[in-house]
Structures are given as C-alpha cells and as structure tokens.
Write a structure and sequence with these properties.
- It contains no helices and 23 strands.
- With 261 residues, the protein is mainly β.
- The protein has a five-stranded antiparallel beta sheet with strand order 1-5-6-7-8, with no helix packed on it.
- A hairpin with a 5-residue loop joins strand 9 and strand 10.
- The radius of gyration is 17 Å and the shape is globular.
- The protein starts with a strand and ends with a strand.
- About 9% of the residues have low confidence.
C-alpha cells in the first residue's frame, strides 16, 4: 500500500511494509518517521533542512520505500536488521517540489514527479549509478506539475496526473510521452489499477472519480461529485483503492465511498 498527502494540518500518512516488521509514516511538519528496522547510511547527495512529506511508496517486495517532500527532495529508505534512522540515498529531484514517486520495474529504477522551473516535471532515475549520473531522462509533462503516478508493469507504461487535471501516458522503454490530455477539471490526486490490468481509475480535486481504458486512454465510467470539490488549498478525492472488485474512495469531506465494479 502507498499513501499521499495534500493540504495543511498536523496529520500525515502511514503505510505498512507488506508483512515486514515496520511502519512508515510521514507528516506535514517534517520528513518520514519510521517504526521498525531501517537501514540508512551513505547519503548520495543528502540535503539539509526538512520539507513536508508529500508521498510515500514501497517497492513490490516491501524492502525499500521512497519519500517525496515539498523541497523537491526524494529520499530512499531500506528495511534491514540494522537501524540508523537515515535514508540510504537522498537527492534534489525537482527544483520546486516533489509530489509523486514510483518504483519502475525494479527496486533500483524509479520515477519522480513534481514541479521544476524548466517544466520537466517528470524524471527517471537509475539509483545504481553515481548521484550525478543517475538521472537518465527528464520529460516535460503535466503543465503545473505532476501530482500522482502509477506504473503498469505488463505494458511498461507510467501514468501521470497533474495539478491542473492533465493525464499523461509515458512509454518507459522509449522514455517518451505517448499521449497527454485533460482528464479532470481539478488536480489528479490518485490512481488505482484494476486487477485485470485493462482499466485504471483517477480521483481528482474536482470531487469526481473516473474509470479509463488503458488500451484507448478513454474514459469509460464517470462518477461525478463523489466528494466535495476542493479549494485552492486542496480537497476533493484524496485516495483510491481496489479490493475484491470494489472501488473505494475517500475525500477531504470525510466520506468513504464504495463502488461495485
């Protein structure tokens, strides 16, 4: 499970490491805090100061997780039998802020999304390379900044959502944007993939939830006004999850909604 945050306040997010003895949590007042066994160590370009945590995501094995923050910094942590309380790698991924993160096909190749001054709001990184050589590609994607992303392994496609409602499909093999379009009236805060791999879902600050065909990148179902529309400071649909062919959404209005698929 992964989690994200939007808006102000003292709360944050937490997620469980898929059967491992640990819990990762983030807060608006600072970077990630971890209960359990963590491996830190060598910095790989550590930065000073503390930004507000915006997103946390584990790899598919539950051994590593990445954290993004409002400074544009990304930190990688690893669970092990030794605890140092520090990320094993940390770097400036985006010049303004970082809001999205995903492991892409392995635990060492990652994608980050955020806001950069040059408009290259999506970056691909090979963390096995030295820090100054690890950025293998930057892409201009989602005007206003990338807010959410999800990786689709069987097509090697990265789906991105932006602060201004843009959606983009990125071919990771060719490292290029296949298509970009406006999918929502508000920012895209969350993705979820259907178990079949044929459909994906988006939740937006405009309060709506949509279902899309992965093959055609066209919307197939729209649930309008599921949650109260967000304001400039955030709101709308904050999170999506699928369980047993049921889609769950939660929003800043405090409501948890369920849709039978």
């Amino acid at each position: 499970s992964n989690s994200s945050s939007s808006g102000g306040g003292s709360s944050g997010m937490s997620l469980y490491a898929g059967g491992l003895p640990g819990l990762a949590s983030g807060a608006y007042a600072g970077a990630a805090a971890v209960a359990g066994s963590l491996s830190g160590g060598g910095g790989g370009g550590e930065t000073s100061g503390t930004g507000r945590t915006t997103y946390i995501a584990f790899d598919g094995f539950g051994h590593k997780f990445g954290v993004t923050d409002t400074r544009g910094v990304v930190s990688l942590w690893q669970f092990s039998n030794q605890s140092s309380g520090r990320p094993f790698r940390q770097w400036q991924a985006h010049s303004k802020r970082a809001d999205a993160f995903s492991f892409v096909g392995s635990a060492s190749f990652v994608a980050t999304g955020g806001q950069s001054g040059d408009g290259n709001n999506l970056s691909l990184w090979d963390t096995l390379l030295p820090p100054r050589q690890s950025c293998v590609k930057t892409l201009a994607c989602c005007d206003g900044g990338v807010r959410a992303m999800v990786y689709v392994p069987h097509t090697q496609t990265l789906l991105c959502g932006g602060h201004r409602g843009h959606l983009a499909a990125v071919d990771v093999r060719q490292q290029r944007v296949i298509q970009e379009w406006v999918g929502h009236e508000g920012g895209v805060y969350r993705f979820a993939m259907h178990d079949s791999g044929d459909f994906f879902f988006t939740g937006s600050g405009d309060g709506s939830v949509k279902m899309w065909s992965l093959a055609s990148l066209r919307e197939t179902v729209v649930w309008p006004a599921v949650h109260q529309r967000g304001t400039f400071y955030g709101g709308g649909c904050y999170d999506l999850d699928l369980y047993n062919n049921q889609l769950f959404s939660c929003g800043s209005d405090g409501r948890l909604m369920m849709f039978q698929l």
